[in-house]
Amino acid sequence: MKRRDFVTRLAAAGGAITLGFGCGRKITSESNPEEYESSKKSSERKTITEPAREIEVIGETDVLVIGGGPAGVAAAIAAARGGAETYLVERYNHLGGLWTGGLVLPYLSTHARDTKNQFRQVIHGLGNEMAQRLFNLGMAIHEVNPVIDPEAGKYVLDEMIVEAGVKMLYHSWGVNAIMDGNTIKGVFIESKSGRQAVLAKVVIDCTGDGDVLHWAGENYENMYYHIGLVHRLGNVNQINKNASGYKKVPVGDPTPIPGVNWVNMHGPNDQDGIDMLNLSRLQLKHRKQIWESVEEIKKVPGHEKIFLLDTASQMGVRMSRILDGEYRLTIEDSMTYKTFDDAIGISGAWTNILYNGKVVNMNERPMWQIPYRSLLPKKTENLLVAGRCFCFEKELVEDTRIIGTCLVTGHGAGAAAARAVAERVTVRDIDRNKLRELLLKQKVWFG
Amino acid sequence: MKSGHIRLISTLVAILFALPFSFNWATGFYNWLSPFILLNSFFLLKSLVILNILGFVVLGFSFVKNRWFCRYLCPVGLGCDMVSKISPIKSSYMKKVPALARWIYIISLLAALLEIPVFIVLDPMAIFNGFFSVFAEPFSWIVLISMLGLPFLLLLHLIFPNFWCTKICPLGGLMDDIYLLRRIISRKTDSINYNSLKTSRRLFLAGGAGIAAGIVIPKFLHGNQIKKLKPPASLHEPLFSTVCIRCGSCIKACPGKILIHDTSGWMTWMTPELTFETGGYCHEDCNLCGTVCPSGSISPFSIEAKKKLYIATIEIESEKCLLTRQKECDRCKAVCKYNAIEIRSLENSIIMAPEVNLSKCVGCGACSLICPAECIQMVPV
Prior knowledge:
The complex is a heterodimer.
Chain A (H helix, E strand, L loop, with lengths): L1 H25 L29 E11 L3 H12 L4 E4 L21 E3 L5 E3 L3 H12 L3 E2 L5 E2 L1 H15 L2 E3 L3 E8 L2 E9 L2 E12 L5 H5 L4 E3 L4 E2 L2 E4 L18 E2 L6 E3 L12 H24 L7 E5 L4 E2 L3 E3 L7 H5 L7 E5 L5 E3 L2 E3 L7 E4 L11 E3 L11 H4 L2 H21 L8 H10 L6
Parallel strand pairs in A: 1-2, 1-10, 2-7, 10-23
Antiparallel strand pairs in A: 3-4, 5-6, 8-9, 9-10, 11-18, 12-17, 13-15, 13-16, 14-15, 19-22, 20-21
Helix pairs in contact in A: 2-4, 2-9, 9-10
Chain B lengths: L2 H16 L10 H5 L1 H11 L6 H13 L3 H5 L2 H12 L14 H13 L10 H10 L7 H6 L2 H11 L3 H6 L1 H16 L14 H22 L17 H5 L5 H5 L5 E3 L10 E3 L13 H5 L19 E5 L14 H5 L5 E5 L6 E5 L9 H5 L5 E5 L1
Antiparallel strand pairs in B: 1-2, 3-6, 4-5
Helix pairs in contact in B: 3-4, 3-7, 4-12, 6-10, 7-12, 7-13
């Protein structure tokens, strides 16, 4: 009897295991033919240890801003104008990041509904100053969400940085955080001059990808989003609409320069924006597609004179890391005119959204305040995070990743850093009222 | 407390549930209590759900105490009695009118066994809720007039006092017979009015009529059906229209406000129709229409099951899409709770367009609602 029992159980167990494996095999998801060789297969990765070495300290400063995009430029100028000695590190040869180098020319979203339901300009402060300077040069068009000329943008931002007295470190990558326990003390940078260090009382992460917060050991989420590459077309004012066989084809949107259009590219979904191999693959693919697209446009009767002016020098990475900070800004905050004691500014919105089961049109969206707490990491002291990687709900991404919001968060972070230096406290402990005073003095609008 | 007081309170509760202010989940409560709807639905669909317990409880009480529901709970009964009281005509005159209630319910139930519960819409709870459901959607005369059953009933009682409750109401007739059954079982035969039993011939005729109706009527219903959007988990046509009691509970319960009264054909008249014109969509976290439906024409379903309950299918006019004009937009993909939309490049070029995975898309309509270029249409499956 016992033996029979044993055999029965064995057979049952065997059957169950077979069944389990059989079911398990069915669950595999379809593999994507476009799948690339990811650099993240850590088990197969071969490694080598770099020897420790002495690093030259090229600067000791009050405020160090990593990344010269809209957030970084605003942060550096705000900090310098607030009285702090400021360094700005930029990997490319221009300021403005995706705004200029990425050819994402529209400065969204300057306008929104105020508490009296009036559609009005909500972003003031440094963003407004930059736009005004560009308007004065004749290098910006449209009052709502201005579209700028990238070269003029680079020129104006350089000018403002120099005027503010910021020490500019072009052609340099931030490569690692210099930590002392939980406090950030500076950042290693790398350039043609080799690896160097800049020590600072406050570091502002304006990398967009949240590189510094990653090195500092903060928690974050890596959001996969679409990655494109913008290009510009020339001679669009010489399209001959009377040519026989003329057909309307998309040639992008006007820029301040007559005859030059910028052409957006949405790009494929769900892309990892901090995987170098993925970025390289997309770069090759996108540039080829753009060339072919322009060739196709030229074949359409009437479009013969169109030419490819340039492709953007920066890939259009729309999202990557999102900080897990002291406060997560929610879609509800953005829809209910929520006010914060520690607000650093107001931004607008440019997309339709579903809110409480109803569609809210882009022109009906309320303005929304950004609290200082959403720029603060949970653990690291003296680190601020500005730009598209600050702490917010993913549903809000379309309105946080845009130029205008980056300018607002950058401005707030820079001013806060200046206050922390002046008050000799950590950025977490600054007097929020004094911060507000400084921001008001720098023409930020709080509603 | 007197039965009259309890009924008054019950009526107030019923009105509260039926009015479109709140209590969406409870809007079908009084319909669930009706054993007439329960038996029709049960005979037709040959299946039961958990909320049918309510109907059986009422049925059980009726077995113990005659017309218990009418006396204590029925809001229509209260209204009819009140009007009858102020009626100038004496009710004694009504005694000569033959009672039709028994035959109505018998015909309806037997026909229900064969696919068509012919008189299900005469349930008093359905008439009551139906009237209030007028207020649940944007006002229209056609719906108001169609839903005037309750005021009509009340006015009728000015001329024929107690006409509905004693002579017509199939729910009342059913309860009368349930109680009669009990008296027969308990052999209280001395108190039985034997006239009411001398009915075997009529019973036979009524049963025959019911079965005949069940066989014949569906033959006429398979005509041309215009494709309509219906709530998720709806029965197929023409079964849907025959089982639906037109109580309007689903229309009131729907948080997306996408259910309206169908006024397009005589068969589907006043059944719920789903539309995306009202600026709503089918919420991914809601199963109220299936929960409140007392007749089973919308089956109860779980939120998880919603991923497989197709309401509509989607048509995208790519030429109008912002993406094909190289504008920045991903709204349809962003709002899709079923991950049915991918944005892909057209012929490996830089032009992108949304692409729908039709096995994932249930047709909730959120993308069509949010699309800034209005290039997404929801069409019947």
